[in-house]
Every structure is written in structure tokens, then in C-alpha cells.
Amino acid sequence: MNTTLETPTNTLSAKEPSWLAERRTAGLDQFKKLAMPTARAEEWRFASVGKLSIDNFNPVAAPSSATLDALTERSNLVSDRAGLMVYVDDAPANFECIGPELAKQGVIYLPISEAVEQHPELMEKYFLQESTELGSQKFFGLHAATVKAGAVLYVPKGVEIEKPFVNYYWTSGSRAAVFPHTLIIAEDNSKASVVDIFFSETEENEALNISVSNIHAGANAHVFRKVVQDWNEKTVSFQLDTTVADRDAQVKNVAVNIGAERARFENQTRIEGAGADVKMYSLTVAEGTQEFDQRTFQTHNAPNAVSDLLYKNALLDNSRTIFSGLIKVAEGSQQTDAYQTNRNLLLDPSADANALPGLEILANDVRCSHGATTGNVDKEELFYMMQRGIPQRVAMQLMVFGFFEEVIEKIDSEELVENLRQLIHQKFSGKIS
Amino acid sequence: MSDTDLQDQAIQVDTEKGNFKYPENYEFDAGVGLTEDTIKYISDVKDDPDWVREFRLKALEVFQKKPMPTKWADKDLENIDFDKIRYYLSKGQQPARSWDDVPDDVKETFERLGIPEQERKFLAGVEAQFDSEASYSRMKEDLEKEGVIFVGSSEGLAKYPEIFKPYFGKVIPTADNKFSALNSAAFSGGSFIYVPKGVKLKQPLQAYFRINAENFGQFERTLIIADEDSEITYMEGCTAPKFETATLHSAVVELVALKNAKIQYITVQNWSSNVFNLVTKRGMADEGAEVKWIDCNIGSRLTMKYPGVVLKGKGARGEVLSIALANDGQHQDTGAKMMHLADNTTSNIISKSISIGKGRSTYRGQVHMPKHLKNCKNNTECDALLINTNSRTDTYPAITTRGQNNTVQHEASVSKVSAEQIFYMMQRGLSEGEAMSLAVNGFVNELMKAFPMEYSVELKRLIDMEMEGSVG
Amino acid sequence: MNHSLEVKNLHVSIDGQAILKGFNLTVPKGEVHALMGPNGTGKSTLAKVMAGHEDYTVESGEVLLDGVNILGQEPDEISHAGLFLAFQYPMEIPGVSIANFIRAAKQARLPEGEEINAIEYYKDLYAKMDALKMDRKFTARSLNEGFSGGEKKRCEILQMAMLDPKYCVMDETDSGLDIDALRIVSEGVNHMRSEDRAFLVITHYQRLLDYIVPDVVHVMFDGRIVHSGDKELAKELEIKGYDWVKEAFATASA
Description:
The structure holds 3 protein chains of 3 kinds. By secondary structure, chain A is α/β, with parallel strands linked by helices. Chain A contains 9 helices and 20 strands.
């Protein structure tokens, strides 16, 4: 991979603006300059970095139109939507643009390449401006150098859109490297929701994903982002996501993660305006030898704001999870309410759950707490159900799926929730007994 | 080197606080800085057996190789200059000390704590040493009848190698961290205790008897072995706030609780505010045994201390109960480690910290349950109370869980005393300071119930004193 | 000497917004006065200002206890001067037991060097708890933590009885109480009525005044007292409702 990426050739187009070319070069420099993570780095504590390799993955040529059509056909988790983009190996497969009604109000929903051409000022202000600080700076650099696929959503002041925008990012080719990007800019008093879905074409195609998503929520904006990650178990994935929330903004992130061989999540929330309210919810079901490595950072730079994080992990087989979260309340950010909860359900003695919940509090008038629990299914509850005549296997499933529900129901969309339940049940019912 | 040079360089001497004198004869003074010669010198003076000499020299190598824990630790650590520290002063070279030499703020502490006259005298010098020596001897006699060994580290290693050697440096290996290596190279003083099978000591053993009997070093080394079915409580620093002006205190404390034994180790640390207090404490609990650390940190400039328990035998129990109070200019960086290595082991950590003014308190924890274990439990609670708007608290636990039917629970919270709570209490007639003290004592109250009575009382007083002037 | 609680031409604002606008009231010792009025009219503000709460800005006026102005004093000084405020929402103080709290409050009233007599103290405490039908085990519980509404209010009355104040201001003591608790709390108050003590009972509802019968009833609206009368006034208010007050006095006060 290094050889193909020495110079960012595979970029949008020849006439890319200079600011973007500069960001790409800076990204490539960062990628080349920084070393691969080591186990000794605090940001990678407990992660099996020895097994981490991104060698021999490469951007691949666009798949056949038959593949594009077939995968577009399969992009059907959400039918009631305001817009849709489907990418396969970073090549556009389908694009349902917004209706004239929204266009008239100034809403922008475009592939990145078109947004760069048509709205250069907007893109210069927001595109590739929020890097991760949680350990994957090297991979962010590679993303910046290479990104070509992705969706930009811009919602002007006061415009409220109820239906979601749905973005599918598929992998298909052999050892494909993909770099999808979702950029959401919600201006003051606007409202929008986005669903990002990460899928693999087959159970076998090996892939590397380094995706980035940035949310900019203006004053009193309401943004809801839902993420479904169901890569096959031959995928190495990085999701480097940030949220910046202005005054009174309300942002909700809900993620359901069941795929990938190794999946690293870096999720940063920065509260820059008083009264903002940001929620970060995640459900992960890990099986086989999967490793889910979650790093979160809630920064409160303004008073009277709320951030709430709930990460639930269920672990089967020899799987591993790492949750490392930090809440930082800056000096002067009084009346902060910040919460962080990590719950791990161990369903196999070989599974390995690690928790590193952290607090750094520099203001005194705050309500902050974190909790981390790890345990098995409650034997007494199991006994109680069995005493009522429920077979153990069914009782176990009831309890495990019950554990998932707290996050799933937050997705707040009947169709998607139902589809996710089915996805999870199909995949794991056989394993829970 | 002139006398003045020496005074300037010997950082035990805080010229503002005490006017200590050194005799002109430096024959038994290891001088400043840490080299092989310093260590050999210490061994010579202590007449160490050969294996101890080797142990020290190896430790020195490790110490010199190991980097400072700069990645995660307080940057203030970098202010320690190992070349300016005086590692050993033998008896003849003790600073002359009288009650008048005790710094005023410490004196005030003693007065207001109501430290018994006898202890004051003991801390003050020769006269009391005699008194305490007598009581120490009496105590020793009683213990000896039971077969209890209670000696200093050098004496322990020299006289009872068959008892202490097998465990010395085993619970905390030399290379555990830079400061355990430092201690292993330069240790002197401390207590070595052996409690025979089935002996249950009713009275706690107290460190200050030992301080009296032998010079309490900056690098004291303590090893307590509780044989099967025995019980012991050890207290250090209880009613004797240590007033040494040493800027580096680096102790190693190892506890060994054999089958069904119980060890409780209690510390109230109230070093003066110029001391780096970097201490390694760990206990090993065999089958059915219990190791309990009660650890209160009120003083020092920077404390880094994470008492741990290695739960080695089935059904072993480990506990760390700690209270930290960080005032202006202080960083209490404390925590706990629980290593579960056998089935049915349980551990409990409760940590309460209070940050006042610009004080900073940090909790670091580690709980480890490997794959092959079953039915292990850990419970961790960390609560932080922030008094002023510029106070700070951090929490960094690390928890690894695998295995069957193991449960781990960690909870942390941060709170403050609200203005409305203070108003409510003032409406009932309490002054603002009293109201604040009451609220802070309320915060630690539940935990203090687990402490021996005399400790709770003293701790409450210390907290009240620290709280003064923190409001408004 | 003037034996009364006297509020003179009190103007109070919070964050620049005027709440009390020339409030006048005199409650002589030996009397119970009720202060009624619609929500948001400044009743609780009055209570907090009298107790010295720092959130409020006193623009002008005086609050006199026995002729001495207490405005500007610290809350504990006002408490020592003899004013007790029974809070509408008593604070929860984790880890501080009722027994220790009241003891500390009593200790704070003793001269330097004098220690409270523990045996006498507990005898007194238990007697008063019995009268309020409070379980003695309550003394060990953290102050107000996890208490029901009724328990909190009873605990307020217990503190009032233990601290023996000259002037009792009771802020919405009836809120959140069922009829049994209301009766017990009222009995506690009635038991304390004496020639040497005055009460100001702040309430939204007439119900409480069936149990604590007032000598004078004041109606408050928009930051001042607009009407006063005997206990029948409370009943009239109950029937006619606060809209009547608004209609009758809104124009007058505008």
C-alpha cells in the first residue's frame, strides 16, 4: 500500500482546488511521518496492535455495473428517506438526490466530488478540518490523502428535515481499501438525520476501511446520526468520527456494530456552546476472534451542557472489546452534566472485555459520573425464567437481546430497528444458548 | 566542599523550616548522589550480608536503566534531582532535633491534634526516645512470648534470613517500577514482622515504636509475613504526622498473608507539603487470606501510591479503602490494583477524594481477571468532591475481565457541595466553614466507619483543619 | 424593645427583575400570620431573603428582628438571631446524620469552649421525635437523603423544635404532605405556639390553616401584601380562588 500512496494520484479530479491539494499533501505527510501504533502507547492500551496491519490493501477499480446494481438492490434497510447514496469500493453506484422542495430551501446533499466543485467555500470551511486526537492520526492522514467517496449534507438555518439521508458504503473487490466520508453541517435551528451503513458484498472479500465522519451542529440544531457497521469478518476498519456542538445544539449518535475482524472506533464530541446536549450510544456484538476497540472523548468547553454516553458490548467466543473513554470538563464549564457508561456482557469465558473509563474534571459545579460493569447473565434471573417454564436457550436469548434493546430502541425508526433486530437475531441466535 | 555547600545541596534540609546541624565528621554520611559507592557505603555501615549487597547493587542498575514514568505521571516528577539527594545518614549524622526545631506549622498541628506529650517528646528528641524505648521494649517482650518477630529491615535480613529472605522482594520485584528499584538499592529502616501460625494480635502494631528504635529512613522497607491463620493490624503515621523535611520519600511495603491469614495495613500520610511521596505497596493473599489497605493521604506535594493485592489463593480477599485530600499545590495521585489469580477471589476498592483550592486528586486503578478464572468479583467506587471552582479531579481505571461468572463493577462520580446545601446549614446556625466541614465529613463518613475509631477521629480533625480557609 | 418580626418597604430583585416591590409586614410575638397568594408572587423569595440567601439583591428596605435589622447578615448570624426557615424543599446532605447535624447546629450556638451535654441532648431529641412520631432510628440516617416528602417536613419541624427559634418562617410546609403527615406536622407547630414566639406560615392552600389556625391572614400579589384579614379571609380565598385576587388587585397594584 505504501508504494501506491506515495503520491496521491487517485484523487477527485485534476482541477482540484489548491486548498484541498494542500490538505491531501499534509495528510500524506502525516501518514508517512507517524509510526504505526505500538502497544506501549496509552491510546492503544489493551489493543492487540501486533496483529494490526494495513499492508497490501489498495484502492481498487470500480466494480462492474452488475455488481453496482446488485448492491444498490441490497441497500434497502431504510425505504422512507430524503436522499440516498450508494458507494461500492468508493465508486458511486446510486444517488437519489433531494427533491425540488428541499433544493429550493438551500439544502445541499451531494457526493463529495460534486460538493467540492459546486460549493468550494463551504467545503473549504468544513472538509477534512476535524482530525482525530485519539491515536489514529496516522490513518486520518491516509484518509485525507485519498478520500474520494462520501456524502455532504448541508442544512441551512431554520430548515427542518424529518426523513433521513441514507449512505451505504460497500466493499467488494479483493483487498480493497476504502475511505468513505460523511460530512454533516446543520446550521442554526435546523434539523436533520443521517444513516451511515457499512456492508461487505460477501463474507469473504477482504477489505480495509478508514472512514471519517464530521458533524457540525449549529446553535439549537438537531442532528441524529445512526450508524450500522456490519462488515464481514475479513475487514479491518477504522471509524474516526467527530461531533462539534454549538449552543443548545442537540446531537444524537447511535451505532450498532457487529462486523469486521478488527474495528477501531474513535469518537470525539466537543461541546463549544452552552446548553448543548450530545448523546453517544453504541451497541456491539462481538464473536469469533473479533476485536472492537472503542475510544471516546467528551470535551466540555462550555457551561450548562449535557453529554451522555452509553456503550454496551456483548462478547461471544474469543472476542475482545476495549472501551476507553474520557470526559474532560474544562475550567469554567460549570453546571456540566456528563455521563459515561460501559456495560460488558461476557457470554463466553474466553472473551475478553477491557474498560478504561476516565474523568478529567477542572470545574467544580458539575455532575459527572462514569460506570463500567462487566459480568455474565444473571443466574438468578435465568433461574427465575426457567422456573416459569422457559427453556434455558430461550431464556438466554431473551436476556441477551434484552441487553441490546436499550441501545437499539434509541434508533427511533421502526423500519430500521426491525431490520437491525433481524440482522442481529439471524447472526447470533444460534450462538446464544 | 564547605559546610554551606553541603547545606544547600542536602535537600533534606529545608532552611526555612528547621535549623539543622551536621557534625563536621562525615565518616558515616553517604553524601549526595547515588552511585555504586553510595550503595556499597550503605551496605558497609549496615554490615549487610553478601546477598543483600548484591541485591542492592542489582537494584541500582535497574534504577539507573528504568526511565521515569513521564508518559502518564505528573510532570512535577521531573523536578526530582536524584543527584542532589542524600541517600543515607548514619546514626551519628542525624540532624540534631529538639522541639524548637520543629517547624511552626507542624507544631501547631501537634498542638491542635492534642498529640500526647510523650509522643511530642519522642518526636522532639533524646529524652523521649528513652521513654518510648522502654515502652517499645515492653511491647516487644509480650510479642516475643507469642513468637512474633518485630525488627528493623537490616536486622531482619541478617538475623532471620530463613524467614524473610524467601519473601523479600518477591511481592514487589525490584524492577516493578523505578522507585521500587530505588528503594531496593538504598533501603534502610522500616519494619520486618513475622506472625506465627494461629497467632492473632489483638493490638495493632504501630510504626512509631520502630521509628524510635531505629532511624526511620526516607527509603524504608517493610515486610510483614502473617503465617497461616494469623492476624495482624499494622498502623503507620497514626498520631505522628511525619515532619521530616525530606523531599523524596520512597518506601516499599510488602505483605504476605498465608493461608487464612489476615493483614490490615493502615496509613495516615501527612507529610509536609514539600515531599514527593512515591511509595509501592502490595500484598499477596493466599488461599482464604485477606489483605486490607486503609490509606489516607492528606499531606505531601505529590503522592503516587497505588496499594495492590495479588489474590493468589482460592477465596482470597483484597480491599483498598482510601481517602485523599488535595489542597493548594498538592497532587494526590492514588489508586489501587487488584490482580485476581485464583477462583472465587473478591476485591473491593473504595476511594474518596476531596480537592480544595487548586488541589488535584487522581484515581488510577487496575483490576485484572484472566481467562481461566471463575466466580471472581470486584467492586470499585470512586467518588470525588470538588470544593472550589479551580479544583481538579481525574479518574483513570483500567479493567480487564475474562472467565466464567466473573463480575466487575466500577462506578465513579464527581460532585460538589452546593451553595444551597451550605445556605441550608447556615440557616440552622452553622458558620460557612462549619457547614463546609460537615458536608466534607459527610462525604467520607460512610467510609470512615470502616476505620479504627482513633483513626476516624484524627482524620476528621485533619480534614477540619485542611478545610479552614477553603471557603469564601 | 420591639418584640416582632418586621418587614419594612422591602424591594428585592433577582437578575435585574423586581420580585418584592415594597413589601410590608409585622408579626408580633405570640401570633401566627399566614401569607397566601398565587404562585410566582414572591412568597418564597421573601422567605429566602429574610434568611439571608445571597442570590437576591435587596434594593431597599429592612427586615427587623426585635427591632434589629438583619439584612446583610450571614445566614448563620440570622439563624442565631432567632429566625428559623422551614424550607419548601429541604436539602439532602449525604453522610451527615440528623443527630450530628442538629447537634452541630446547637453546638454552634454555645459560647466558645462550652460543650453540649450529649445525654441531655439525646433525651431532648428523642422526646421531640416521639412527639412527631418519628422513628428513633432516623437519627442515624443521612439528613433528608432518600426521605419521603412527609419525612422531610417532619424533619424540618424536628429541627425547629430543637433549635427553639423566636421567629419561625414556614415556606409551603404543606406541599407534598398527605393528610396524616399534615396533621402531625401541624400538631408539632401548634405545640410550639407561645407568647415568646411568632410564626409566618407561607402557603398556597387554605388546607393547612385548618390545622394551624392563624391570627391574621395576608394576601400577597405581585411582590406586596394587597389585603389582610382574619382566618375567614383564607376561606374566602379558597372559595373565590386566586383569580379573584388578581382581578381585585391587579389594577390597584399596576
